[in-house]
């Protein structure tokens, strides 16, 4: 059962963003739905996280877990996973899928800032994937993630770079040409340059260990990790 916090949500949340995903929540685990890109990239980012942080036996919190695609896959690698989100419908879908799969994931309807106050320094690994570009104050999320992780622990962020190429690929291409994502999924002004994210991480007491880019080949319909961080990128930090 999804547990709820006693705090009042809404401090660092955009209701319109929550509504976008609430409308599609029932399709979260359909690999051919609007969430197909998440299913396709999940093995790549899972492998990267496991290689760099070693998930077996680790306590992990997945911030902005949505329907639980990454949360469940990290659990399958031997991690004790807590998935948190403010999307109640998505969490209900995640919980139903967890009951079917038997994954060792505890889902909670709680803000990351509230969890950071409740359990500072409690997690070996913190993941925050495809969330920062959907909140009003992404730097506050970075600070909360830094608070949650243990000294020597790992924090992973993934988001979208802000430049003309990312607008062309992530908005025009993905939403309007290839129809990979629903129109209006992303707001270009909220995209985050790696330099900005790195600065927020350093201010929060995290050291940037590396970055990997996520690229998509529309002809082969194939995703890959590499050095090109001009569109999607994953930043690995250590406390």
From TrEMBL:
Q: Which domain of life is it from?
A: Bacteria
EC number(s) reported in the record: 2.1.1.222, 2.1.1.64
Q: Does the keyword RNA-binding apply?
A: no
Gene3D superfamilies assigned: Vaccinia Virus protein VP39 (3.40.50.150)
Q: Which GO terms describe its molecular function?
A: 2-polyprenyl-6-hydroxyphenol methylase activity; 3-demethylubiquinol 3-O-methyltransferase activity; polyprenyldihydroxybenzoate methyltransferase activity
Reaction catalysed? a 3-demethylubiquinol + S-adenosyl-L-methionine = a ubiquinol + S-adenosyl-L-homocysteine + H(+); a 3-(all-trans-polyprenyl)benzene-1,2-diol + S-adenosyl-L-methionine = a 2-methoxy-6-(all-trans-polyprenyl)phenol + S-adenosyl-L-homocysteine + H(+)
> What pathway does the UniProt record associate with this protein?
Cofactor biosynthesis; ubiquinone biosynthesis
Q: Which positions are annotated as binding S-adenosyl-L-methionine?
A: 45, 64, 85, 129
The keyword Transmembrane helix is annotated on this UniProt entry:
no
Q: Which GO terms describe its biological process?
A: methylation
Q: Which UniProt keywords apply?
A: Methyltransferase, S-adenosyl-L-methionine, Transferase, Ubiquinone, Ubiquinone biosynthesis
Q: What class of enzyme is it?
A: transferase
HAMAP family given for it?
UbiG
Q: What does this protein do?
A: O-methyltransferase that catalyzes the 2 O-methylation steps in the ubiquinone biosynthetic pathway.
The UniProt similarity line reads: Belongs to the methyltransferase superfamily. UbiG/COQ3 family.
* Protein's UniProt name: Ubiquinone biosynthesis O-methyltransferase
Q: Organism classification, top ranks?
A: Bacteria, Pseudomonadati, Pseudomonadota, Betaproteobacteria, Nitrosomonadales
């Amino acid at each position: 059962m999804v547990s709820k916090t006693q705090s009042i949500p809404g401090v660092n949340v955009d209701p319109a963003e929550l509504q976008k995903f609430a409308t599609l929540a029932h399709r979260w685990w359909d690999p051919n739905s609007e969430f197909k890109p998440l299913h396709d990239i999940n093995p790549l980012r899972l492998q990267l996280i496991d290689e760099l942080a070693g998930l077996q036996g680790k306590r992990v919190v997945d911030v902005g877990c949505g329907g639980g695609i990454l949360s469940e896959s990290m659990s399958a690698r031997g991690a004790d996973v807590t998935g948190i989100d403010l999307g109640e419908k998505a969490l209900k879908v995640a919980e139903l899928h967890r009951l079917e799969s038997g994954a060792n994931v505890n889902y909670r309807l709680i803000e990351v800032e509230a969890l950071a106050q409740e359990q500072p320094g409690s997690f070996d690994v913190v993941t925050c994937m495809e969330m920062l570009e959907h909140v009003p104050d992404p730097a506050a999320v970075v600070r909360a993630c830094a608070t949650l992780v243990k000294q020597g622990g790992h924090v992973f962020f993934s988001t979208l770079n802000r430049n003309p190429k990312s607008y062309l690929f992530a908005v025009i291409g993905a939403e309007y040409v290839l129809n990979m994502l629903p129109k209006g999924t992303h707001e270009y002004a909220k995209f985050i340059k790696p330099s900005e994210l790195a600065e927020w991480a350093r201010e929060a007491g995290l050291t940037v260990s590396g970055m990997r880019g996520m690229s998509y080949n529309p002809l082969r319909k194939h995703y890959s990790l590499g050095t090109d961080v001009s569109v999607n990128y994953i930043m690995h930090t250590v406390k």
